[in-house]
Specification:
Sodium/glucose cotransporter, 21 helices
C-alpha cells in the first residue's frame, strides 16, 4: 500500500502558496486572465500546462508496453506533427479571431464546454482508478479530497491559480522524472538494460506495423481534439505576445516530447525486469516501492493539472456566456463571480458522485472518450485546409458524433481503431454539411 498522506501534506502546502489569491477576483475578467500579455518564458510554461494531463502519461505507457522501442519513433513523430498542426491552426486568422471574439460564437462555446466537461470526467475517473488500485482507499475519500482541493486551487483561483499550481506541478514532475531516469540507468547501466531487452524481445518491436499506425493516429487525433477544444489553451495562446507565440509553442512541445520519451525509458527499464506482462498493474507490482511512489506522484500531478485545466475552462466559458447576456454592472462583478464559484462547486460534486457511482464500468467508457475527442478536433483540422471554421457545422458534427460514437464502441472491439474511424466519419459529416450548406454561419 502506498502512503497517500504524503500527497495530502503536499496538497496543503500548495494551498498555502496561493491562499492570498483564492476568492479574490473583483470581476469575471480577472478570473479568466491575468490582465497583461506574457513573454516567451511564461508563455512556454502556460502552454506546456495544457499538454501535461493523464493522457500524456498513459498513452506513452501503453504504447511502450505494446510496441517497445518503436514507441520512441511514434512519440517523436507525434510531437513534431502536433507542433506543425498547431502552428497551422494558430496562423489561421479565422480560428484565432473566433476565439478572441468568443462571446459572439455561442456554438463554439458549447463545443468547448462539452469537450472540457468530458475531459473533466475522464481525468476524475483516472484518479478514482489510482486511489482504488494503488492507494487502496475508499472512493468517497479519495475523490472527495481530490476534487475539494482542485475546486479551491482552480475553481476559486482562476487563471492565476491554474498557472501558479500548474507551474509548480510541472517543475516537480519534470524534476522527479529526470532524476528517476538518471538513477535507473546509472544504477543498471545502459548496456545491461539493452542486453536484457534484446534477450527478451530480440526485435525492435513485437507489435504489428498496422496497429502501430492506428495507435499513432489515435494519439494524434485525441491530442488535437483535447487541445483545440480547450479554452485554457486558446486563452494562454492569446495572452502571449504575438512575436513569441510560435517560439512558445515550439519550446513547449519540445519539452512535452522529452517528457514522453522519459516515460518510455522508465517503462522499458521495468519491462525488461518483468515476467510475461499481463496489465499495467503488474508493472506497478514489480516496481521498487520508492519508484512506485515516484511514478504515482507524477501521474497524480498530471491528473491534478488536467482537472484544473478543464474546471477553469468551464467556469470561464460560463462567465463569457453570462457577460454577453447582461449589461448590469452588478451581474458583471460580485454576483456573477459568486455564480461562477458555485458552478465550479456543483461540477465537482456532480462529477465526483457520478464517477464514484459508475466506477466499476469506467474503463468501458474510455473508447467513447477517445472517439469523442478524435471527432471534436476534426473541424479545426478541416479549417487548416479550407481556411474557414464553420461553428454551426462544427457543433452539429460534434453532436451527431456523440450518438455515432456510442454505436462505434459497441461495434468495434479494437481500441486503436475506434478513434481513426470516428475521425473519418466526423470529417465526412462536416464536409457534407458545408458542401450542401445545410446550415448557415
Amino acid at each position: 500500500m502506498i502512503d497517500w498522506y504524503s500527497l495530502l501534506f503536499f496538497a496543503f502546502i500548495l494551498l498555502f502558496i496561493i491562499l492570498e489569491k483564492i476568492n479574490s477576483h473583483r470581476t469575471p475578467y480577472h478570473f479568466i486572465v491575468e490582465g497583461q500579455q506574457i513573454g516567451l518564458s511564461g508563455g512556454t510554461y502556460s502552454l506546456l500546462i495544457q499538454f501535461m494531463t493523464g493522457t500524456t502519461f498513459l498513452f506513452p505507457l501503453f504504447l511502450t508496453i505494446e510496441f517497445q522501442l518503436l514507441s520512441v519513433i511514434l512519440l517523436l513523430l507525434e510531437a513534431i506533427l502536433l507542433y506543425f498542426l498547431l502552428i497551422k491552426i494558430k496562423a489561421n486568422v479565422e480560428i484565432m479571431g473566433a476565439f478572441l471574439d468568443l462571446k459572439k460564437k455561442p456554438f463554439l462555446i458549447w463545443i468547448f464546454a462539452l469537450a472540457n466537461l468530458g475531459n473533466l470526467f475522464l481525468q476524475t475517473g483516472l484518479i478514482a482508478y489510482l486511489f482504488q488500485n494503488l492507494y487502496h482507499q475508499a472512493l468517497g475519500i479519495g475523490i472527495g479530497l481530490f476534487l475539494a482541493f482542485c475546486f479551491v486551487y482552480f475553481g476559486l483561483g482562476g487563471y492565476y491559480g491554474l498557472n501558479r499550481i500548474g507551474s509548480i506541478l510541472l517543475y516537480g514532475s519534470f524534476f522527479i522524472l529526470s532524476f528517476t531516469t538518471l538513477i535507473l540507468f546509472l544504477r543498471s547501466g545502459m548496456d545491461i538494460i539493452f542486453e536484457k531487452y534484446m534477450n527478451r524481445y530480440s526485435t525492435f518491436s513485437t507489435g504489428g506495423i498496422l496497429n502501430a499506425a492506428f495507435c499513432f493516429v489515435t494519439f494524434s487525433l485525441v491530442m488535437i481534439g483535447q487541445t483545440c477544444t480547450s479554452f485554457y489553451f486558446w486563452s494562454s495562446l492569446s495572452s502571449i505576445k504575438e512575436n513569441h507565440r510560435v517560439s512558445a509553442l515550439r519550446y513547449s512541445l519540445f519539452s512535452w516530447g522529452a517528457f514522453l520519451l522519459a516515460i518510455v525509458v522508465i517503462t522499458i527499464n521495468f519491462l525488461v525486469r518483468m515476467n510475461p506482462f499481463v496489465d499495467p498493474l503488474d508493472l506497478a507490482k514489480m516496481m521498487n516501492p520508492v519508484f512506485l511512489h515516484v511514478i504515482t506522484y507524477i501521474l497524480f500531478m498530471l491528473l491534478v493539472t488536467g482537472v484544473g485545466n478543464n474546471l477553469y475552462s468551464i467556469v470561464s466559458l460560463f462567465f463569457i456566456l453570462k457577460m454577453e447576456r447582461t449589461d448590469s454592472v452588478e451581474d458583471r462583478s460580485n454576483k456573477l463571480i459568486k455564480q461562477g464559484y458555485l458552478l465550479g462547486l456543483v461540477l465537482c460534486l456532480v462529477i465526483g458522485v457520478i464517477v464514484a457511482t459508475i466506477y466499476q464500468n469506467f474503463v468501458t467508457w474510455i473508447p467513447f472518450f477517445l472517439s469523442f475527442f478524435a471527432s471534436a478536433g476534426i473541424p479545426f483540422l478541416f479549417a487548416t485546409l479550407t481556411g474557414q471554421l464553420r461553428e454551426k457545422a462544427a457543433f452539429i458534427t460534434v453532436m451527431l458524433m456523440v450518438i455515432v460514437d456510442l454505436g462505434l464502441i459497441k461495434l468495434i472491439e479494437n481500441l486503436w481503431l475506434i478513434a481513426p474511424i470516428s475521425g473519418l466519419i466526423a470529417f465526412i459529416i462536416y464536409a457534407l454539411i458545408q458542401k450542401f450548406k445545410i446550415v448557415r454561419n
